[in-house]
Amino acid sequence: MKINKPKTMLLLASMCLAMGSTQAQEPAKQTNNPLLAEWTGPYGGVPAFDKMDLKYVPEAFDVAMAENLADYEKIANNPEPATFENTIVAMESAGEKLGRAFTYFGIWSSNLSSPEVRKLQMEYSPKFSEMRSKISQNEKLFARVKKVYEDSLKNPLDPESQRLILNTYEGFAMNGANLDEFSKKRYAAINKELSSLYTQFANNVLHDEENYVTFITDQQLSGLPESFIKAAAKTAADKGKEGQYAITNTRSSMDPFLTYSTERELRKKVWTNYYSRGDNGDEYDNNELIAKILKLRRERVELLGHKNYPEWRLQNRMAKTPENAMQLMEAVWPAAIGRVKEEVADMQAVADELGHGITIEPWDYRYYAEKVRKKKYNLDSNEVKQYLQLDNLREAMFYVAGELFNYTFTALPEGKVPVYHEDVNVWEVTDKTSGEHIGLWYLDPFARAGKRSGAWASPYRSHETYNGKVTVLSSNNSNFIKPAPGESVLVSWDDAETFFHEFGHALHFLASNVKYPSSNGGVRDYTEFQSQLLERWLSTDVVINNYLKHHKTGAVIPAELIAKIKKAATFNQGFATTEYLASALIDMKIHMADPENIDVDAFERDTLKALGMPDELVMRHRTPHFGHVFSGEGYATAYYGYMWADVLTSDAAEAFEQAPGGYYDKAVAAKLVKYLFAPRNAMDPAEAYRKFRGRDASIDALMRDRGFPVPKK
Prior knowledge:
Elements: H1 10-14, H2 57-76, H3 84-92, H4 96-111, H5 115-136, H6 139-154, H7 159-173, H8 181-211, E1 214-216, H9 226-238, E2 245-247, H10 251-260, H11 264-275, H12 287-303, H13 309-313, H14 322-353, H15 365-377, H16 381-385, H17 390-405, E3 407-411, E4 425-431, E5 437-446, E6 456-461, E7 472-480, H18 493-510, H19 524-534, H20 541-547, H21 559-567, H22 573-592, H23 600-611, H24 627-630, H25 641-657, H26 666-677, H27 685-693, H28 700-705
Parallel strand pairs: 5-7
Antiparallel strand pairs: 1-2, 3-4, 4-5, 6-7
Helix pairs in contact: 2-3, 2-4, 2-5, 2-6, 5-8, 6-7, 8-12, 10-11, 10-15, 14-15, 14-22, 17-18, 18-19, 19-25, 22-23, 26-27
């Protein structure tokens, strides 16, 4: 279970809650449990990662949940009339110990998972659900929230307070606070069952990632880059297979292997392992779990009077309705699959020229796309990687943050603050001009057993000022393959963009300028926008000339190579857009379908066929391992949000491109920070974007970016 915000009230806005009445709770006993202790030390206090031990988890959760419920009971039973301060603001302070316990357990579940961790997840997920239900089903509490909300409509407060009231009220109302007693109990029961299913889904995927490893020998290395070979050798040795090479079942290992390996049967095996996660017909198969999840989600929203899950989910998102989200995706889909046909034709021609005697299959796409890239643009991805050294990219990100946000990043000496793994390093973030402390940034860059795949960002502590200023603790987590001793970490251009992307999330945390903890939340189809926008600075001239240097010679990446990269900017956009959109469309369509007796595999297959999905590629996230959607509810019917945000991204990028100072224009950068980063969820996203751009975003910039035809007006 991954909880990003330390204030428990945020759970109401971000998770499905159930309703009813609750009994008064006695305050929990005092404890010396290190997972509950206030954070001490420098920088406003830091997590005691050096004292983490799983043995403390049960007591920590039991005590923290009891105290959390007692906090809300106290608010609900306050004899004074309900006001913003004694109800809404009071809720902001509830559950501080639980927030700390969640931070530690989030580290275990995402970065240091083990059978013991998964057992605790399965045990406590339904307990968390019951706790949330007792809070949101508390009729006295909701009555107070509703009174404050109604009073605010007559006598509005300041904009941030007003939005906090709205979000808090919606957090209850959208989750059934107005249901009758029978429906509340059923709603709570559904949530409890779903919480267990989500945990089981995630653990099944992690099992398949850890257990489907392909080991190869010296005779099977043809085509693979030297850096990949050395890293694969180290991974194999770490797994007890000295002298062999390990291709792990993660994207960071799978992707380069499929791009460069000449061994077609091995490519097929690695591809099959990766895209079959959660779909192997064994005890870890997720298809039946998904069917149960879909059925329970539909039943739950029907209790609220909604006809399907997307209708309920999107009502307070930027898209507002599933129809609006579908309209955007369907506007881009034809151009995307049309481009795939062109890409496949180019690849097939290369395969035929080489006399390979094959028809392009999904496990061939990356391999032959790379050959087309070389042929069309004389661009070798492995040559580009020699200039994309991880440490230099990190310094480039710091430079960009300095120019746009006026931040300085200073590495902390080892041991200055505790970390949970030797791979983690920490930097202090300060204001360049005043020297004011902004927060800390933790970086955990390497893949390892027990770490979930992909890349992500998390705040261990968010900005707030309502009860004294609190500074930010932010983190970035990646899955780069750890190099052999003395070797550089070289990454692809796509991975470099992802590194910048996730750093954009961290900057969004650090730049927060809100009063209340819950204002640090976000609207799902908006929160990816800021991070997607930050990717654009990777290809700016100053970053190229100062940070993209050969890992051995130190030579700046040649101008002609950069010219090739920029010329090829829309290369393979058919693949990238289609694999993403297929996942987003399935996410929406499967939640709009009748879940009764649904065959998940057949639905995925039949829906993609009806959409005209090209045979030569698959969804970026096939349904059985679509953790965004089925290991929780954060992205459920919201995966479209990446494209919604990308419309904003492309449009906002043109604001910089049209400015006198380009991507480093001080005036535009100031508006960027003021309206798009600092307000977090204290301002309506549509209003914030209009303040930045002076108008709403247009899809035209997105189509131009991807090299697709711009729709006629």
